[in-house]
Hints:
Layout: H1 5-31, H2 35-46, H3 51-57, H4 64-103, H5 122-136, E1 140-141, E2 147-149, H6 150-153, H7 177-182, H8 186-189, E3 192-194, H9 200-208, E4 213-222, E5 234-244, H10 249-263, E6 271-278, E7 281-290, E8 296-305, H11 307-312, E9 321-328, H12 329-336, H13 350-353
Parallel strand pairs: 1-4
Antiparallel strand pairs: 2-3, 4-5, 5-9, 6-7, 7-8, 8-9
Helix pairs in contact: 1-2, 1-4, 2-4, 5-12
This protein binds phenylalanine.
Amino acid sequence: MSHNLRDVKIYFFMALDFEIIKKEALEAIEKAGDLAYLEETFKKYLGKKGKIAEAFESFGDLALEEKKELGIKINQIKKELENIYFQKERELKDILIKQKVGQGSADILLPGIKPEIGHLHPITKVKREAEEIFKSMGFEIAQGPEVETEWYNFDALNIPDWHPARDMWDTFWLRQSELKMKNEKIKTEGKLLLRTHTSPVQIRYMEKHQPPIKIIAPGRVFRYEATDASHEMQFYQIEGLMVAENISVANFKAIIQAFFQKFFDDKNIKIRLRPSYFPFTEPSFEIDVSKPDGTWMELAGAGMVHPSVLKAGKIDANKYTGFAFGMGLDRLAMIKYKINDIRLFYQNDLRFLNQF
Ligand code: PHE
C-alpha cells in the first residue's frame, strides 16, 4: 500500500498531539491531592468527552493504514494512564483511611458484622440423618417423580379404582383434558396426580432391578386434606423396600428397631407391630415405638410386600419375598425437636427456622 504524504504528515502531528496530552494527563494525576480532583482529571482526559476521545474523533478522514496505527497508539496511552490513575486512587484512599483511623472516627476494635449464613431446614436435617442410618445398613437411595400416574400410585400397588382403600389417600388429581391429548402414556398408566405416598417408587425401582433389593425412597407427598396441627397438604415420607429370598417379618423388625435406636440415640427403644391394613402389604402392620414414659407412639406403616405388587414390579413372587415400610419424616422431626404443629415447617418463619 502506498502512503499518501498528507496522511503521513497528519499521522505524525496527531501522534505528537497524543504524546502531549499524555504528558499533561500524567502530570495532573501525579499532582492530584484528593479523590475529587483525581476524578475530575480522569473525566478531563479519559472520560467520554475527554481530550483523548476528542482527539480520536478528529482523525476521521485519515487513510486506513495510519488510522490503525493511531488507534493502537491511543489504546496504549489509555491503558497506561488508567493504570496510573487506579494506582493513585488506591494511594489516596489509603491515606483517607489512615487519617480516619488516626482521628479515632473509626473504631478498629469494633467487632465486624458477620454475614448471615444459611443452614439446613429441620426436615432436610432429619431426612439426611435417616438416609445416613439406612445407608450404614446397606440401603440405597431411590427416587421417583412427584407427579405420578394413577398406575404407579394406585393400581400397581394393588389399589384398583373400585377399591374402597383408595379413600385412604385423598388425592390431588391434575387436570386431564389437555394432558390426555399430549401424553400417550396416560392411556396405559391412567390419569396424572400428585403422589399421595412414596410407595410408587417401590414399583418404579422393581421394574428396573431384580432382587436382592434394599432401598429407601425419601420424598415429598401430597394429600387433598384440610390442614391442622398434625396434617399438611404436603409432607415428607421415607419409604423402605427390601426384597430377596427368605425375607421375613423378623428381618424387618430387626432393621426398623436398629433404625429407631440410632435415630433417637437410645439403645433401650422397643418396637411393637400392630395388625393393620394396606392393600400393598400382607400382612400389614402399624409400627409403634416405645417412649421413655412407657407409652407408645405410632411412627410408620409396614408389611410384607403383597405378591400382586411384586408381580406389578416384574418380580417372581414364588421365589422372592420382601417387606416395605413408610413413615412420615415430618413426624420424626416433630418428635426429635419437640414441635407440636406440622404447619410450622412450611411457613418459612425465620423466628422458627433459626432455632435449628
Ligand atoms: N404408603 C403408606 C402410606 O402412605 C405407608 C406404607 C408404606 C405402608 C409401605 C406399608 C408399606 O400410608
